[in-house]
Amino acid sequence: MKDNRNLWQRAVQGLRDLLLVFVAETKMTYKDMGVMIFFVVVPLLYPLLYSYIYNNEVVREVPAVVVDESLSATSRDYLRRVDATPDVEIVAQCADMQEAQRSLRRGDAYGIIYVPRDFDAQLALGRQATISLYCDMSGLLYYKSIVLANTAVSLEMNSEIKIERSSNTTARQDELTAYPIAYEEVPIFNPSGGFASFLLPAVLILIIQQTLLLGVGLSAGTAKERSKHHDLVPIDDHYSGTLRVVLGKSLCYFLVYMLVSFYVLGVVPRIFSLVQIGQASDLLLFALPYLLACIFFAMAASALVRNRETCMLLFVFTSVPLLFISGISWPGAAIAPFWKYVSYLFPSTMGINGFVKMNNMGATLSEVAFEFKALWIQAGVYFIATCWVYYINISRSRSRALEMQAE
Known about the structure:
By secondary structure, this protein is mainly alpha-helical. The protein has two domains: 2-54 and 192-406, no CATH class; 62-178, abc type-2 transporter like domain (abc type-2 transporter like fold), CATH 3.40.1710.10. The chain has 15 helices and four strands. The protein has a four-stranded mixed beta sheet, with helices on both faces. Helix 2 (33-53) runs parallel beside helix 9. The two termini are 39 Å apart.
């Protein structure tokens, strides 16, 4: 009976200490302006900024210049059609390639359409004619617009030339001559072919992990700076248990990021009308292990932080590489096996792939079982790593406390 009573008292004391750690961490979080910036301001404003920048989805009316040496009715018709597309705007007719190149260097245009002198003559002789494109590859979206516009116009004129040279007598024969194989283009999961629908879901998921890394790292750096011996936890009886410290701190981060995740993953896509076809219940269940994995990953990584500035040096630069190796902005099949295995260390990889499949492709939770299970495994592994990190720090703090008492 006495043992049961002692066990109960220890459980109550442990729960009380956990709540005291939670309250202390919450107070420190809301008093630290730097942590608040990463926990609240950045998740609030960054998604809006990115979504607003890419809200047009595609680049329209890309300026291009023309060098038309043919000066024929056919070449003028071709250029008129290109200019009529929503993708390209012809801003100038240049006398030669040197003048056109100068326009590109000045930034007046992002592409050159070159029509050779023998363009119309080659077509009249029944030979293949050539039109050359020169694009500024510093912006791939500009290149895409210019190439797509010219490709569409050339295919359309090809069909008309084939019909004109055939000896058809009916409209159906003309149709078969122009398009022997009928096809229908249906873009799935990204109907507009836009940049925002393609990349922003991945960016939103990554923002959650990176702001947690920076905020928790900044909080850990502050604790070490305030401690005489650069300890992660203070010398206090309430901080004597590893599990209660880890759970108390993580509970603070979890409650804050429940609201942040709802805003970033639920509200922002609706504001900017991004693709959202996933089931809300499935997305909620998927977000739970992702959030836990990110929290414990950030807490374990905070052991590397020596002061407040260190987290900026360690974690900020990782955002772009993590986006690339996730397999979204760069095809996963083209990623080297080494970097693919490295990507599995970060919750963002599984989080991005699973969220995109569910939110943009309509997958169910069972269809992203691999990513879902991997996130739970990551949450468990990083929880153990966090407990180990805090156990070492608590043991050091306790040893110093005993030494101080002995003195």
